[in-house]
Amino acid sequence: MKTYLKIIVTVVFVGVMSFNANAQNKKVETIEFKVTGVCGMCEERVENAALIKGVKMAEWDIKTQTMKVVYQPKKVSQEEIEKAVAGAGHDTENQTAPEEAYKKLPACCAYKDGVEVH
Ligand SMILES: [Cu+2]
Where do the domains of the chain lie? Predict the structure, then answer.
């Protein structure tokens, strides 16, 4: 009978622990950082680029040039998210878009070449 009880306690304990670990992995945080862009096409591009693994939501505001991201810190870092956005051709607060990626942007999105927000 004692062994039986020990097994039950162990099973419950292991269950609670793995439930906790799971909850930890799913914990989300919200961050904001600057992303440069000029139009609705940019919005779609930067939001899609930010939606990498571990990112739950990405919303870019053209007026404030600010990207709001809800993500799981256990799965992805702010640096990785900003790099993904920069990789799509848009400078972020801490990452510069590679020249090749910027050159691929349509003319209406060429924010570094005097194109204003429109
Ligand atoms: Cu654009």
Answer: 27-109
**DSSP bridge partners of 114:** none
| CA dist., res. 86 & res. 16, Å (int) | 40
Note the pLDDT tens digit of each residue in 96-118.
Answer: 999 999 999 999 999 999 999 99
Distance 79 CA to ligand 1 centre (A): 23
* Type of residue found at 17: M
What's the gap in Å between 102 CA and the centre of ligand 1?
11
27-109: CATH number: 3.30.70.100
Q: Give 109 Cα–ligand 1 centroid separation in angstroms.
A: 4
